[in-house]
């Protein structure tokens, strides 16, 4: 007899062995009911093998919950890998693999009542019915003319129920329960779109992607508007033609009705085979979509990050659109990166994976340089439009002109806005505000206080009145004068979107404007409603954070202003330059998508920083080359792995002590490749009533890093009132 290792549902992470009753088809990934102490419980089978040698008698699995395993063997393997790599409890990973609505027994198929002809009466009886019970007669005729059955609801629901009952009693008809799909897009119609004839570059890309035996990951670097999506569509079609299945990952924010529609329209003829997974599905819809995938009805899955766990079998291709997007990284445990998991899953399933972007992440780009990935390029816009002009404005000069006041609008931007408004064109203004970290910059000369060891801006800590480096812990006093030019105007950066709105309102009192940021967009659908108004040109100017940078297509927008590029540039994050380059390039790709030429104005105190200059010249390669050099020199990703270890507690001292204790233990017997930073308060020192401390870890070996942390954490359980956070390959530093 064999036994199964079962991970019990629930927060306590229990794993027990159970005997598998003779004849019960239990395999890895099955959901089972098991006895646990004196009650019944449920769990997931992790492994199957010989019963372990123990002194006590194993109990047996009571029954199978689902007839076949809900988690495919490949997904099971993926789950175990994630638990190891991201140092996350397996139970937690299982929750990501199997959505709540699918795991819980309580959800089930939605059904409807259907009336079907059973024994149709002869003409004589029919004639009698017509006189005696005309309603029954009508129902029978209706049923006959519509192929023998109709939904009770369509026959009139409650108003006909007594007539239907009589018909059932006489065996003329029967009542059937039929499963109906809760289709999130049921109210939409999709007109089939035909594949476009590909241009030369697109055709070459498709050829490489669909080459027989292509299992090397592919980075598709295509400038904005180069027709990447058309390549995806045809690559998916190719997989389907081979009888296989496909996953398309799209960042949650870009997963708009328009993008989904593009896919649904192309595959309109087989619409039932497209499943869409995103966070706005109801539990019931998610349950249905998931089961349609699992039982093979749906062969194309489009979704955000977690759709990478879609239980498809026979995968033919995985596509990750906008692969550089940070939102692919999950912000709560297990903190996996959807793109990296996509590459791994493709490897397990031996299928091609395409990572597409106009601004590839340096991680993916470096993989093409080292030969791990294939690089394909689309260098021109498919719609033959020109790239918009990017103008860079030196705000040091503005600051002098405006004598110490914070310069929000340069003369150039103001003049340009005036002209666009006169022409009835639309404007987007960005205030790229990230996080809470504040750096020190001198307005007259643009100088930013940086850590000499890490080359990232130092962060101002108000409580200590000090500047601290968030990578290594280096500290310095806050200077009164600019270390570079001696001016006393050096100060903390910062003004918010609200301030900008006030200023713009004063300058352009007639313009209709809306502000888009976390504060104004709390209400459900607020973002969608505002964007719709903008589309209908009921708004002239949108002022927003990077929330609006992605996936926008507004033909009437001819001017995009980046108010203070430095806000995104001088944050204590070695990826700040990369993000600024991405933002500028993506934003530039949004302007001038219609008939009119677009203009982008970038205001900055450091006009010569490489990310701004290379973006201005639409030069990704130049940018990547110098940025990779910097990363290599300071041993940052992609040349090493970074991880953040943090503690959170309502007691500040406990959070600090716990992390200091961990620091001590991590430093003991530490493998040589690992560098351990100092314990420090997080830039976001307190959130949700909890104090936060953190330290950074860096290593050239991912395995050495996560194993060392795993061992140390296992040997050092935290006090009850302290929570540990571990973020492997972290993208955010607080
Ligand atoms: N081969 C083609 N012939 C004609 N038009 C094309 C072709 N391929 C794509 N297009 C059109 O070019 C436009 C841009 O294409 P698409 O949106 O696929 O580009 P993209 O690279 O995905 O853009 P982005 O990076 O902005 O998301 C679309 O209107 C699309 O219909
Ligand atoms: Zn440092
Ligand atoms: Zn200065």
TrEMBL record:
Keywords: ATP-binding, DNA replication, DNA-binding, Helicase, Hydrolase, Isomerase, Metal-binding, Nucleotide-binding, Primosome, Zinc. It comes from the Bacteria. The gene is priA. The keyword Transferase does not apply. Initiates the restart of stalled replication forks, which reloads the replicative helicase on sites other than the origin of replication. Recognizes and binds to abandoned replication forks and remodels them to uncover a helicase loading site. Promotes assembly of the primosome at these replication forks. GO terms for cellular component: primosome complex. Belongs to the helicase family. PriA subfamily. It catalyses: ATP + H2O = ADP + phosphate + H(+); Couples ATP hydrolysis with the unwinding of duplex DNA by translocating in the 3'-5' direction. Component of the replication restart primosome. Zn(2+) 1 binds at residues 442, 445, 482, 485. It comes from Rubritalea squalenifaciens DSM 18772. Zn(2+) 2 binds at residues 451, 454, 469, 472. PANTHER family: PRIMOSOMAL PROTEIN N. This is Replication restart protein PriA. Binds 2 zinc ions per subunit. Its cofactor is Zn(2+). One of its GO terms (biological process) is double-strand break repair. One of its GO terms (molecular function) is DNA binding. InterPro entries: DEAD/DEAH_box_helicase_dom (IPR011545), Helicase_ATP-bd (IPR014001), Helicase_C-like (IPR001650), P-loop_NTPase (IPR027417), PriA (IPR005259), PriA_3primeBD (IPR041222), PriA_3primeBD_sf (IPR042115), PriA_C (IPR041236). Residues 209-378 form the Helicase ATP-binding domain. Its EC number is 5.6.2.4.
């Amino acid at each position: 007899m064999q036994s199964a290792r079962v991970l019990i549902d629930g927060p306590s992470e229990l794993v027990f062995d159970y005997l598998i009753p003779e004849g019960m088809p239990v395999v890895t990934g099955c959901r089972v009911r098991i006895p646990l102490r004196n009650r019944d419980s449920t769990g997931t089978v992790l492994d199957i093998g010989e019963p372990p040698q123990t002194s006590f008698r194993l109990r047996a699995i009571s029954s199978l919950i689902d007839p076949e395993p809900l988690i495919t063997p490949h997904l099971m393997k993926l789950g175990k890998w994630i638990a190891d790599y991201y140092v996350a409890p397996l139970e937690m990973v299982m929750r990501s693999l199997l959505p709540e609505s699918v795991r819980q027994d309580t959800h089930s198929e939605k059904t409807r009542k259907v009336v079907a002809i059973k024994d149709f009466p002869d003409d004589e009886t029919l004639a009698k019915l017509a006189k005696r019970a005309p309603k029954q007669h009508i129902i029978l005729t209706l049923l006959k003319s519509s192929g023998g059955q109709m939904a009770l609801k369509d026959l009139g629901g409650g108003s006909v129920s007594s007539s239907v009952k009589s018909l059932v009693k006489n065996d003329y008809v029967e009542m059937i329960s039929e499963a109906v799909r809760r289709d999130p897009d049921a109210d939409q119609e999709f007109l089939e779109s035909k594949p476009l004839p590909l241009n030369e570059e697109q055709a070459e890309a498709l050829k490489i992607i669909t080459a027989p035996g292509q299992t090397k990951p592919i980075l598709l670097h295509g400038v904005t508007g180069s027709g990447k999506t058309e390549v995806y569509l045809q690559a998916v079609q190719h997989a389907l033609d081979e009888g296989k299945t496909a996953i398309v990952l799209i960042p949650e924010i870009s997963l708009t009705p328009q993008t989904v529609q593009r896919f649904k329209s192309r595959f309109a003829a087989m619409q039932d085979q497209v499943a869409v997974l995103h966070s706005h599905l109801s539990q019931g819809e998610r349950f249905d979509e998931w089961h349609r995938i699992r039982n093979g009805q749906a062969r194309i899955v489009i979704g955000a990050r977690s759709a990478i766990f879609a239980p498809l079998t026979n995968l033919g291709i995985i596509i990750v659109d906008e692969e550089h997007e940070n939102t692919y990284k999950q912000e709560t445990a297990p903190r996996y990166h959807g793109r990296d998991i996509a590459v791994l899953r493709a490897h397990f399933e031996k299928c091609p994976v395409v990572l597409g972007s106009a601004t590839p992440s340096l991680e993916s780009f470096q993989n093409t340089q080292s030969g791990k990935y294939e690089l394909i390029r689309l260098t021109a816009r498919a719609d033959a439009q020109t790239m918009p002009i990017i103008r860079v404005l030196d705000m040091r000069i503005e600051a002098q002109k405006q004598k110490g006041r914070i310069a929000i609008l340069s003369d150039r931007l103001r003049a340009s806005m005036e002209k666009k408004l006169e022409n009835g064109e639309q404007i987007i203004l960005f205030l790229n505000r990230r996080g809470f970290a504040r750096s020190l910059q001198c307005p007259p000369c643009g100088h930013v206080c940086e850590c000499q060891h890490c080359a990232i801006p130092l962060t101002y800590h108000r409580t200590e009145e000090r500047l601290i480096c968030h990578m290594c812990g280096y500290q310095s006093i806050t200077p009164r004068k600019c270390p570079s030019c001696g001016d006393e105007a050096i100060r903390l950066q910062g003004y918010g979107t609200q301030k900008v709105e006030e200023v713009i309102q004063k300058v352009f009192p007639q313009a209709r404007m809306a502000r888009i940021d976390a504060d104004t967009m709390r209400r459900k659908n607020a973002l969608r409603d505002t964007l719709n108004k903008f589309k209908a040109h009921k708004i002239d100017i949108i002022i927003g954070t990077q929330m609006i940078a992605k996936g926008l297509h507004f033909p009437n927008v001819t001017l995009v202003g980046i108010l203070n590029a430095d806000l995104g540039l001088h944050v204590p994050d070695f990826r700040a330059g990369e993000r600024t380059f991405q933002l500028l390039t993506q934003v530039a790709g949004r302007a001038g998508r219609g008939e009119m030429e677009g203009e982008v104005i970038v205001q900055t105190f450091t006009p010569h920083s490489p990310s701004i200059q290379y973006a201005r010249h639409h030069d990704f390669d130049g940018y990547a080359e110098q940025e990779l050099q910097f990363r290599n020199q300071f041993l940052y990703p992609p040349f090493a792995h970074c991880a953040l270890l943090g503690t959170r507690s309502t007691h500040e001292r406990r959070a600090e002590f716990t992390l200091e204790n961990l620091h001590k233990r991590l430093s003991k017997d530490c493998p040589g490749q690992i560098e351990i930073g100092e314990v420090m308060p997080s830039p976001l020192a307190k959130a949700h009533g909890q104090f936060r401390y953190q330290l950074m870890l860096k290593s050239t070996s991912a395995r050495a890093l996560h194993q060392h942390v795993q061992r140390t954490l296992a040997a050092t359980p935290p006090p009850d009132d302290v929570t540990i956070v571990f973020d492997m390959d972290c993208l955010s530093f607080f």
